[in-house]
Amino acid sequence: YQDDKVVDVYETLINPLGGLSDYIQNLTNISQRELLEAPKFYEVADAIRLRLEGNVFVSHNTDFDFNLLKKKYQEMGQ
Fold first, then answer.
1. Per-residue pLDDT for 8 more than 90?
2. How many CB atoms within 10 Å of residue 40?
3. Which of 4, 45, 67, 71 has the most CB atoms lying inside 10 A of its own CB?
């Protein structure tokens, strides 16, 4: 968001490399199949970092999303 205009939107599902509970599937309306077809975190980590650096992080559940991103980058040694 810059000068009262949206300048970039980035949205992607991430393959969690594991199962997804029925509860989460019902809560998010995201299917296991959608996640299997989604990129793995390491495949999009650079694209996400480029969008985050020097910008404001906005998400639906910021505490959860930010902490998960932080954990995944740490797992990658970044």
1. no
2. 11
3. 45
Which residues does residue 26 pair with via DSSP β-bridges, in sequence order?
none
Contacts of 72 (CB under 8 A, 6+ apart): 41, 45
pLDDT of residue 9: 84
pLDDT (tens digit per residue) in 52-77: 899 888 888 899 999 999 999 999 99
Q: What are phi and psi of 52, to 5 degrees?
A: -85, -35
Q: Give CA separation, 72 vs 20, 38, 45, in Å.
A: 18, 16, 9
> What six digits make up the tokens of 54?
């020097």
